[in-house]
Structures are given as C-alpha cells and as structure tokens.
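Input structure tokens:
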C-alpha cells in the first residue's frame, strides 16, 4: 500500500512512525505556517534521514501541490492528522481510496474544531478517535473506525491529548485493512452539528453563572493549549491553570460569586462560586508569572476582593 501523510508534527509522530515501520509511506505534506524555522529544519533533516520526500506548503499552495503529486504518483490513500486547509473535492478523489481524516473526538457531538476542548469543557465521560473518509465539507464523510476512551474528571487538555495520541496508532491499524470495502463505512447523521474553535469569550470564567465543577472543567480544557481559563482581579487579567473543589458542607450564602474567601501563603487562595460552593486556586498565571495559589496569596491578594468575569470591577451581586 502506498500512503501519503498530511499532518502536524510533533503531534503526528506516533502515527507517522507506525506507518514508516510498515514501509507504507511515500511522501509527507506539512502546513508551513505553523512551524518555526528551527523546527522546520529539524523535521526536514529527520525526513531526509528516512529518505522520505517532504513538502512544506502554505495554505495557498497546499491544494495545488497535492494535486500535482497525486496526479503523477499512484497513491492508495492520503492519511490526514490535523490540517486546517479545506482540500478541494477534485483532489479528494485522486487516491484510489481517497483521503482518511483522523479526528480526536466523537461524531456528531464534537464534529468541528478542537474537539478535545469541548469534550473537557462539557464534562463528557468518554470520547473517541474517529477515522472517516473526507468529503467536500469538514468532518461529514462516512465513518470507518471509532476508538473509544474514557475521560476522567480532572483531566486537562494536554492529558487527554496525550492519551488520544496513543490511540491513534490502534485506530489506524484497524482502519487500513478495512478501507477498500465500501460496506465498512457508516454514513453520518445530524450533519448540522458543528462546533467552532473556542473564541476569547469561551475561555472566560462566568462566576455568576458557572458552578465550581463547570469552572474546573473550563480551567482543565484551557490547560495548556489556551494558557488557562481567563478571569480578572483588580482589573488585571489572570489565567487559571489548575483549581480543585473544596468540601464545604455548608454553602457560603451571602457571598459574591468570585469573592476571595480566604487567602494565606500557607493554605493558598479560596474563592466562592455559584450556590456558595468553594474552589481552591492551585496554579495561575499573571503578570507576576506562573504561580501557585500560595505564592499569589503572598503578593497581596485580599480576602473580600473578587475575581470578575469582565475586566472592570462590577458591583457585588450576593447569592
């Protein structure tokens, strides 16, 4: 089998190495804009050592380059693992078995951009690696393989991403023997469901509306890809990287969501949430650097002050 690989490195290395061991790869295509000069040089050297042709293409040249290569070479399938460019329909039909996309999320719930973020933010109990045949629109082609994995409360974006990375090889191993038989594909339903890439508003903690669990899920979904969930203290932006719930049997009624209930260099920072729930700030990033809650308490955060949803300081709303 002759395979062309289109992916993002170093994320794609597990799948790439598996295909190299199977001696199935004949070329690699990469999106040039996402690589620094040093990483691009390193990748080129590694591919040259493997005597494997590699093509760094811009968003504007990728389709033309793929079309030229696939027209001149007999290719069974193109495997795609992270690509932001929409491949033209005429090009998708050039390989014998088309293009296979590896999607780190389940369909239809997490069809679209950054499924790992939405999986964690929405506190889903499981997710899937989905391999599907690509068609004219993003993530709507028939499904070939689904590989399920549990998602545990407290997992961060980085943790789940690494776990899914280990499943990609298993999924590809299952997919390749099946791709030649049309009966192995399952048509998708609910094609209107499509999640967009998180915007800046999706990354902000809404203290008045979010429970302590939903805040923790957002914080974990933002770590490390988005640098942490956004909140504000005294007008300055802070990104929370790790929080944990505090078992307080008696809700803290009469307090404002986002209010700092306790701040001490030894015990750290504790914040009131919706319904009087209590949350401990473990790690955050501010203009003072990446700090533990204990260290942040040591530089002057005060009990009674509030973390806010917007940058200006709002009038306190009691619960």
């Amino acid at each position: 089998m002759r395979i062309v690989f289109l992916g993002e490195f170093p994320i794609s290395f597990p799948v790439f190495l598996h295909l190299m061991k199977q001696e199935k790869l004949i070329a690699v295509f990469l999106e040039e804009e996402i690589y620094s000069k040093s990483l691009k040089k390193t990748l080129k050297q590694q591919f040259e050592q493997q005597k494997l042709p590699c093509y760094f293409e811009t968003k504007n040249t990728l389709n033309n380059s793929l079309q030229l290569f696939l027209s001149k070479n007999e290719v069974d399938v193109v495997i795609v693992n992270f690509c932001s460019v929409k491949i033209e329909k005429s090009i998708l039909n050039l390989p014998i078995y088309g293009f296979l996309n590896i999607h780190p999320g389940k369909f239809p719930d997490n069809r679209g951009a950054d499924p790992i973020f939405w999986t964690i933010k929405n506190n889903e109990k499981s997710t899937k690696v989905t391999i599907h045949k690509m068609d004219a629109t993003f993530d709507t082609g028939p499904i070939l393989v689904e590989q399920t994995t549990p998602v545990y409360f407290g997992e961060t974006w980085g943790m789940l991403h690494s776990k899914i990375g280990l499943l990609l090889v298993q999924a590809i191993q299952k997919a390749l023997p099946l791709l030649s038989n049309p009966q192995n594909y399952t048509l998708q339903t609910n094609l209107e469901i499509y999640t967009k890439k998180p915007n800046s508003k999706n990354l902000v903690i809404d203290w008045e509306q979010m429970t302590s669990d939903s805040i923790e899920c957002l914080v974990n979904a933002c770590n490390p890809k988005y640098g942490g969930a956004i909140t504000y203290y005294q007008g300055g932006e802070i990104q929370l990287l790790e929080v944990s719930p505090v078992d307080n049997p008696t809700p803290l009624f009469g307090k404002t969501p986002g209010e700092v209930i306790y701040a001490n260099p030894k015990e750290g920072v504790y914040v009131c949430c919706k319904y009087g729930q209590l949350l401990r700030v473990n790690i955050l990033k501010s203009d003072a650097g990446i700090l533990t809650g204990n260290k942040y308490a040591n530089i002057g955060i005060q009990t009674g002050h509030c973390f806010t949803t917007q940058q200006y300081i709002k009038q306190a709303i009691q619960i």
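Helices lie at 13-21, 37-49, 62-72, 89-92, 115-121, 157-175, 212-221, 293-298. DSSP finds eight helices and 14 strands in the chain.
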